[in-house]
Design brief:
Elements: E1 16-20, H1 25-36, E2 40-45, H2 48-61, E3 67-70, H3 76-90, E4 96-99, H4 117-138, E5 144-148, H5 172-196, E6 202-206, H6 215-221, H7 226-242, H8 247-250, H9 252-259, E7 268-273, E8 278-283, H10 288-291, H11 293-307
Parallel strand pairs: 1-2, 1-4, 2-3, 4-5, 5-6, 6-7
Antiparallel strand pairs: 7-8
Helix pairs in contact: 1-2, 3-4, 4-5, 4-11, 5-11, 6-7
Length: 314
């Protein structure tokens, strides 16, 4: 894949994109870039006030006015309501879904439905959203689902017997890694099932490398211990200074996955330098756990059981 910038995004006129976590960071930058190329962007986020601010930012770059979709991925009722709102706004046709939102390495907490917060938000909420939006994606042309994983996925595994840490000791980093490998496993399993069903929709995974976003800052704020929080703030600041790339560069893998004409279903788009931490994106090998079909099948079934959402494609 050649060196790629936002200028290479094809014209998106007539296409509608839903971006989760679009109120800041990678989601906001992705939304601005898509809107600047003519897409109608649906900004999905949990905080109404921050959502309105993001709406103004995206509107300044847009030829087609963006819309706000309230969405709390930690609440399955909110996921269902967001899907209904997308249907109202679009008439039931969606071209791009970017599963971008996430929480990272927070103290143990639970979603409204009782799931461990990171697994419930980063994976279960997005999986339910994707399945429920599949009819709308079928009505779109060249529709794509882009799911963001992370460098942290390389150290993760899904504990299919105890995904919510009900019986094992909770560790924030372990829980985050589990949620991000789940994102990657889900993205590839979704594409396998789409291909098997003869669908035109494709599923692509991506990760942004080490990008200076507010995700790590929010992780620090979530720590109850003042000393731990201070140490994390200093480490984050040093990492952002020495290693991290800009949000604009970090958004490129998602934008390539969502728009580049040479992307195939099941691809994994990520930075290609410094062990995936930064640099121009390229198609890279998915992790072995994501390529494992048994993992894909088990996660698919577990997700359906926990969310009570019927998988699509069935």
């Amino acid at each position: 894949m050649k060196t790629w910038t936002e200028a290479d995004i094809p014209d998106q006129s007539g296409r509608t994109a839903l971006v989760t976590g679009a109120n800041s960071g990678l989601g906001l930058q992705t939304s601005v870039a898509l809107a600047a190329k003519g897409a109608r962007v649906l900004i999905a986020c949990r905080n109404p006030e921050r959502g309105q601010q993001a709406l103004s930012t995206v509107a300044a770059a847009a030829s087609t006015p963006p819309e706000l979709v309230p969405l709390d991925l930690a609440d399955l009722a909110s996921v269902h309501a967001a899907v209904a709102r997308v249907g109202e706004l679009t008439g039931g046709a969606l071209h791009i879904l970017i599963n971008n939102a996430g929480v990272m390495a927070v103290p143990k907490a639970h979603t409204r439905d009782g799931f461990e917060l990171q697994f419930g938000t980063n994976h279960l909420g997005h999986a339910a959203l994707t399945w429920l939006l599949m009819p709308a994606l079928r009505r779109g042309t060249d529709a794509r689902v882009v799911t963001l994983s992370s460098l942290a996925a390389s150290g993760g595994r899904v504990d299919f017997d105890d995904p919510n840490f009900d019986h094992r000791r909770y560790n924030p980093a372990t829980a985050y890694a589990q949620s991000k490998i789940a994102n990657q496993i889900f993205a590839l399993e979704l594409d396998r099932r789409l291909r098997a069903a003869g669908e035109d929709v494709i599923s692509v995974a991506a990760h942004p490398g080490y990008t200076a976003t507010n995700l790590t800052a929010n992780m620090s704020k979530a720590q109850g211990n003042v000393v731990v929080r201070a140490v994390m703030d200093r480490v984050t600041a040093l990492g952002d200074l020495l290693i991290a790339q800009s949000v604009r560069t970090g958004a490129l893998p998602s934008l390539i996955a969502a728009t580049a004409p040479d992307v195939n279903g099941g691809d994994y788009i990520a930075p290609r330098q410094f062990r995936g931490m930064r640099g121009n994106p390229a198609v890279v090998p998915p992790l072995r756990a994501a390529l494992d079909r048994e993992n894909g099948s088990r996660l698919w079934s577990l997700t359906a059981k926990l969310t009570s959402v019927i998988p699509d494609p069935a």
